[in-house]
Every structure is written in C-alpha cells, then in structure tokens.
Amino acid sequence: MIRRPIYLDCHATTPVDERVLAAMLPYFTEHFGNPASVGHPYGWEAEAAVRQARETLAQAINAQPEEIVFTSGATEANNLAIKGIAEAYCQQGQHIITVQTEHKAILDPCNYLEKLGFQVTYLPVDSDGLLDLNLLEKAFRPETILVSVMAANNEIGVLQPIAQIGGICREHQVLFHTDAAQAIGKIPLDVEAMKIDLMSLTAHKVYGPKGIGALYVRRKPKVQVAPQLHGGGQERGMRSGTLYPPQIVGFAKAVEIALAEQAEETTRLTLLRQQLWRKLSQIDGIYLNGHSTQRLPGNLNISLEGVDGAALLLGLQPVMAISSGSACSSAKIAPSHVLLAIGRSEQLAYSSVRFGIGRWQTTAEIDEAAERASATIHSLRRQTVLH
Ligand SMILES: *Cc1c(COP(=O)(O)O)cnc(C)c1O
C-alpha cells in the first residue's frame, strides 16, 4: 500500500478528534430533534444540547450564551459581521477599516460593500506581518463604523495585538470585529479584556467538524447586526435556519478540549515548529515569513530563492500534504496577497510553503518532513543549474 503523505496542512482544516465525534454521534440518530420544536421531548433534548454547547462556547471567550449566533462557519460569520454591521449602521457612517493580510472572507465582503458605495481602508502591515497601531489611529474618520482585524493569520500565523486594537477602537467608540477562525482554542481569547464587539469562530481548524461556526455579537452595549439570512427567525432573528445539533455539540466539545489542553499543546507544537525550522534554516536562500515568535505555535511559512513554486509543491506533495500560500488562493495561480503585503517579491511569494503542524504530529514525522523538504529543494536547485 502506498503511504499517504504526512498531513501538515492544519490551517486548511484538521481531522475531527475522536472525543468530538463520540459526543456528536447520538445527535444524528437518537436525539435527532429540531431544537425549535417546543412541544415534545425530541425537541427538548436537542434544545438542551444546543443550550449546553452555547454555554460552553460563551464561557470559552468570556461571553454570555445569548451573544453566540451559530453559523455555517467563519466565512458566514465574517459576512454576517461585515455586511450586517454595514447595513445596520450605514446612517451613522460608511467607512470601514481593515488590513491587507485578512482572509478573503473579510476582503471580499469589504470589496462588495465598496461597490455599494462604502469606503474601506486596507491598512498595510510591517515586514513581520504586524499592524502598526499608529497607522490604525490615523485611519479613523468621523464616519468610521467598524474595524476588522484578524486575531491569527491563516498563512503566516501572525498574532495581531488584539487587546491593544480593541482598546483603541473603544476609545474612538467604533465597533471592533475580529476573525478568530485560526485563534480559537489556540490562544486565549476574552471578549471583555480584549474589548471585542464581534468575533468570528469556526470548528474545523480546531479538531471539530466542518460546516459549523459562530459569530459572537456583544449585547452590552447592544450591537445591531442586520440579518443576511431571513426565515424562521432562529438565533434571535440574526441567522435563520434550523440549528444543526450534532455539529454544534461537536464544535463545543472541540473548543472545550482545546482549552483544557491549550498550555500543553502550545508547548509541544512550538517545539515541533522550532525543530522543523532548525533543520530548514540551514538551507541557503530560505526566508521565514511572519514574526519569529508572535505567531501560532504550529505555523511555519517559508519562501525560497531560486526555486520554482509549482515545481516545489509537486516535489513535496507525494511526501507531505502542505499548501503554498493559503489553501483558498492556491486554487488560482496568483502569489499570496499576504506574502506580498509583508514585502516579499513575486518570486518569493510564489515559492512559498506553509506548514501547519497539528495535534498528533510526532518528532519523527517532523524530522522526515524536514529531511525530505531539504532534499527536494536541493535537487530542484541542481536541476535549475543544469538547464
Ligand atoms: C478558515 C478560515 C476562514 C473560513 O472559515 P470557514 O469556517 O471554513 O468558512 C476564515 N478566516 C480565517 C482566518 C480562516 O483561517
């Protein structure tokens, strides 16, 4: 049997933890009710499970259960936040501030709003991928209604200073949204301490199922979000559609496990990342993308001089499952907008590899990945010289 490649693409998605799956299973067949069915025990069981999950998730971010709006994932949560705020507050102003290195699920809704007449400032980042808070300060206008800055970057793993950004937004009395799809369960998140008004979450980057996420929406003081899906009025009218108890239960279980194991997992994944970088950094013309320490524990993103990006991926993919740039933009042949934003040349942005180390990775696998990657890079460079 051909061995499957080592999975090193945990920013694209993660496998479902067995403990999460076990928690989900009864809600497919046994407790299959619709949480909105108030007239019989099938509905009550499902409603109780959803209520419990909502409490767990709220606690995980220091919020109240009524502030959690379930969605199909972070893409939908981001769309609901950006378009929902724009629609609800357009009388007060039509200016939004965000950052060039955001996920497409932020940038595209912002582009869409620009077509409708909104103005959007896309702030640059420094060569480490960090936002300059002085630039943020200067970007506010009287008509600014929202600031959206991601907590952890999906390509280069960089962690933005969310608490400081939240403080600045609060001083300017402007709503603050953060896309925490990569951050939930991996770094501490506290909507009170960090002064976050809206936060997008997803389960499948943290060993939960795909197709479920949430938008945290502050209630005190109340943040208005215009619904983008109309129908049965679920989720206090903000997101209609029958709730999906197995996914919701799995989401909460995944976050609960991640929080319980966060300290230990952070240490272990940081060591594995350092092990990988120690080996790879010996290669000539290799660059680390993103801040060296202020990043997700399991993230390593590198660029290589003098290596063709497509050939590099082809060479590595039989051995390891990795992405070039972000999974979303790698379907198109375009250099990563994140790598261009941190000042990499087009060539270095093309010849990049994102390693996403996950919960079950072993030191032996990391050693093997590092060795195979160096061998592939050396052989590609030899071929280029021969041609
Ligand atoms: C994965 C991801 C998304 C999209 O989340 P889905 O739940 O897959 O829709 C949004 N933002 C970031 C930063 C991500 O990493």
Could you explain the architecture of this structure?
With 387 residues, the protein is of the alpha/beta class. It has 2 domains: 19-259, Aspartate Aminotransferase, domain 2 (3-Layer(aba) Sandwich), CATH 3.40.640.10; 262-382, Aspartate Aminotransferase, domain 1. Helices cover 40% and strands 13% of the residues. The strands form 3 sheets. Strands 2-8-7-6-5-3-4 form a 7-stranded mixed β-sheet, sandwiched between helices. Strand 5 (144-148), helix 7 and strand 6 (175-179) form a beta-alpha-beta unit. Helix 4 runs parallel beside helix 5 (104-115) and helix 10 (309-316) crosses helix 13 (363-386). The chain is globular and about 75 Å long. It starts with 5 loop residues before the first strand and ends with a helix. The mean pLDDT is 95. The structure holds pyridoxal-5'-phosphate. Pyridoxal-5'-phosphate (PLP) is lined by residues 73-75, 103, 105, 150, 154, 179, 181-182, 202, 205, 213.
What structural class results from the helix and strand content? alpha/beta
CATH superfamily of the largest domain: Type I PLP-dependent aspartate aminotransferase-like (Major domain)
Low-confidence stretches are: none
| N- to C-terminal distance | 35 Å
Named once each, the bound ligands are: pyridoxal-5'-phosphate
Our count of helices gives 13
Largest sheet: number of strands, sense, barrel closure: 7 strands, mixed
- Along the chain, the helix and strand elements come as EHHHEHEHEHEHEEEHHEEHEHHEH
What general form does the structure show?
globular
Radius of gyration: 22 Å
Number of β-strand runs: 12
Give the class-level CATH name of the largest domain: Alpha Beta
